[in-house]
């Protein structure tokens, strides 16, 4: 999962960043409304961790911005203990959940997983795509019930392909989703090819079909024919 943390308290944002990175999430940080808007217009995110009180405005204004720009993302609000009105307004504006400060980082992580499972995975932690099975709780993948040994990046890539099956994903989109804004400084995205090649080889060697099609000049598409 790729997460944008919008929090101006640098110690708290750093703690959230380090914890979620340790759980395998790709994280980026914004410290203001303006910085967050710029990132949201440039990069896709699965979920936003949104503080309400920011130095240049109310974080809830970002919910209006997300809606007006038709940005496809989920939002978890983090708010002060006495900010009940902000929580209610945030949920009314489209936020998916909230957690009250101070909070334990494992709780924040659990709520993000629940949002992802509910919105992206349709509430089921196990994704089945023909002969491929992904357990998002245990991070285990199997092909025809045989375990598949994937690196974390290969796992994330496969999950990204399957949750976006039959859609063209550019090399840049894949790179940004799996590596975050680190990719801004790269001259090209050729390294994506090697990860796709390795994933394809592991699936087919295990007896799975080759679903990953190359869209020349653009990127890749995980082709699944509906029955």
SSE diagram, text form:
Elements: E1 2-6, H1 10-22, E2 26-30, H2 33-42, E3 47-51, E4 53-54, E5 57-58, H3 61-68, E6 74-79, H4 84-92, E7 97-100, H5 105-119, E8 126-129, E9 132-135, E10 140-143, E11 146-148, H6 152-163, E12 168-170, H7 171-179, H8 191-205, E13 212-215, E14 219-222
Helix pairs in contact: 2-3, 6-8
Written description of the protein model:
By secondary structure, the chain is α/β, with parallel strands linked by helices. It folds into two domains: 2-119, 3-Layer(aba) Sandwich (Rossmann fold); 126-222, Winged helix-like DNA-binding domain superfamily/Winged helix DNA-binding domain (Arc Repressor Mutant, subunit A, Orthogonal Bundle). Helix content is 40%, strand content 24%. It has helices at 10-22, 33-42, 61-68, 84-92, 105-119, 152-163, 171-179, 191-205; strands at 2-6, 26-30, 47-51, 53-54, 57-58, 74-79, 97-100, 126-129, 132-135, 140-143, 146-148, 168-170, 212-215, 219-222. Helix 2 runs parallel beside helix 3 (61-68) and helix 6 packs across helix 8. The longest helix has 15 residues, at 105-119.
How would you summarize what this structure contains?
This protein is α/β, with parallel strands linked by helices and 227 residues long. The chain contains 8 helices and 14 strands. The relative contact order is 0.11.
